[in-house]
Amino acid sequence: MKPRLRVILVDDHAMVRMGFRMLLSSTSDIEIVGEADSGESGYQLYAELLPDVVVMDLSMPGMGGIEALRRLTSRYPEGRVLALSAHEDTAHPRRALKAGALGYVSKRGAPEELIDAVRSVAAGRIYLGADLARKLAVQDLHGGASPVEQLSEREFAVFLQLAHGQSVAQIAETLHLSANTIGTHLYNIKQKLGVGNQAELTLIAVRNGLLDV
């Protein structure tokens, strides 16, 4: 008998984790071995348990899911992460895959899609929902990508924190960078997006489906 796939869930909403745990545990080949409520604790939990798959939400307080994903796959190249998001944009999946995720699933998708995605990622296969794959393909074909995609990976991480109302000092502490470095990223972000203040950055994030409103 094949061993069950060992999975950890990383999401800041306890009810969401409970739903995913019940769904995935209902199968005969998947076992939930741990849960975390932030990117930081998810990163630490991975080091302790070394699961087959990490199911990680991208929109969490603190460093957030994409930064946690980047750090995890950088330190553990063998780590297999399935990214989750409630957002319908294409910027999040592009960033997640670039940061090392093997799959991306919308929280609004069908329940069985999550099960299929976990199995695919555990096997080392890239998984994207059909609708998302189509959106990405159309954007690549017609050059319709969002201006936000001009940002580097670090600039995107800072942009999301700024859009959530975080100060330069708070972001520096969260991302373990100096305030001067964050200030430089902020300047570059404003130049690339053509904005003058934090409120305009938040508006761009909302328009691109990167923030819940």
Any idea what the radius of gyration is?
17 Å
Low-confidence stretches: none
Number of strands: 6
Task: Supply the number of helical segments.
Answer: 10
User: Strand sequence of the main sheet, in spatial order?
Assistant: 2-1-3-4-5-6
Q: What percentage of amino acids are in beta strands?
A: 5-15%
Structural class by sheet pairing and helices: alpha/beta
User: Which fold name is given in CATH as the topology of the largest domain?
Assistant: Rossmann fold
- Kindly report the name of the CATH homologous superfamily of the largest domain: Response regulator
CATH top level of the largest domain is Alpha Beta
Chain-averaged pLDDT: 87
Number of domains: 2
So, CATH architecture of the largest domain?
3-Layer(aba) Sandwich
SSE run = EHEHEHEHEHEHHHHH
